[in-house]
Amino acid sequence: MTDAQMDVGASRAPTAASQRSVLIIEDEANIIEALKFILSREGWQVFTHSNGHDAFDAIQRHQPDAVILDVMLPGRSGYDILRDLRAEPGLADLPVLMLTARGQSKDQDMAQSLGANLFMTKPFANAQILDALKQLVGG
Three-class SS of residue 138? Predict the structure, then answer.
């Protein structure tokens, strides 16, 4: 699965919390499924992408309200994707929550230096993800 999409809601316009969209860029299927379930249940429109090599294209295609971005991806790292995102004028302010299985301070420092809004280590609680997205996009 290189690019899967699940639409929950008819519109991409962020006029209400139930219509906000998030793009999950993650290569672990169990995490993708868990996040899709949690977020769609809360009314989010959820898009997913499972590799780093063309993740930037997926961001441009879906134009989400927020991105959940894994650090370690096949093809390109989440850090490289974040660097490109922050250099793109139309996407530079897009809220990004970085996820990683490696919770070392150097990983968090790297994410922050590249412009990640929030950083979270795996495993995480469902409430942590929801709270993080509310913090990033309001609501």
Answer: coil
